[in-house]
């Protein structure tokens, strides 16, 4: 087991023929990241953002344009993939159809000339961990998608890697199977205590599995921190809107001063939200920015509430929660409530917003505006 360090990592594809949505034609640009020994780090971002390219550079499957990669204390830029002491679990299962599950798991060790008894010991040790001990005699064609992925991961960890790399391993599974596999992966990683890099575009997977999340967009690292940090303290509008389901409400606003207090106002809407005192040092009368607040921090006020009366535009009953949409100009402000009241479009509710949970973002750059 070893840590991972990415230092000023760049990847540029020359003469690719395809226009990539990247910054300055770089698929990965100046990526700096440290993953401590034993940590589980998720690379999270939309499709085409550079997360898989980064993982493939770590694995040695892509050449590095510039920068350095260290696994432990070893600079691995020029090492062949087989010499990097890594385990790989890809999106595609890539199992050998003529071989049993046992032989698929054992294949890499046999190729390296490991003693037969040692191979058998490792297979018998890994199989219960990945819950495939009753599948060892089966052929791949007889396995479900979830079973194939467990075999895929078992092949990666049987090598006893210093670093385990997983590239969207759950993307081919349906919702229920994905949830079950997330639980199994977390249990497995806790047992083997292996430094792990996990690529995903699913923020729920990243939030539930990772010790730290690297949020990437257009090849640029946007934020690197714990799930709580990227959720509660996003550095910019992209991170704020990408993390969370449903996503954060982000609305353009103009602050106005009434007497000695400031309020967020919105075009073509009567809604006014009190500006938290902590922002008084950065706002002014007529100050324009974007205000963000998560749906669970927008509340339905009670009978004695001083909240603003607003008309419901949409209502969704999801069983364990209700989602209400309120039109604010041309935008839709979403809120989540556990209240069992069944609303309908056109009903009037009193809207309250937890001011301490609001965030401000620059209109042009999207960067978070912090209180001074």
UniProtKB/TrEMBL annotation:
Pfam families: ABC_tran. One of its GO terms (molecular function) is ATP hydrolysis activity. It comes from the Bacteria. InterPro entries: AAA+_ATPase (IPR003593), ABC_transporter-like_ATP-bd (IPR003439), ABC_transporter-like_CS (IPR017871), ABC_transpr_MalK/UgpC-like (IPR047641), Mo/tungstate-bd_C_term_dom (IPR008995), NA-bd_OB-fold (IPR012340), P-loop_NTPase (IPR027417). Residues 4-243 form the ABC transporter domain. PROSITE patterns: ABC_TRANSPORTER_1, ABC_TRANSPORTER_2. Gene3D superfamilies: 2.40.50.100, Nucleic acid-binding proteins, P-loop containing nucleotide triphosphate hydrolases. It comes from Flintibacter faecis. GO terms for cellular component: ATP-binding cassette (ABC) transporter complex, substrate-binding subunit-containing. This is ABC transporter ATP-binding protein. Coiled coil: none annotated. Keywords: ATP-binding, Nucleotide-binding, Transport.
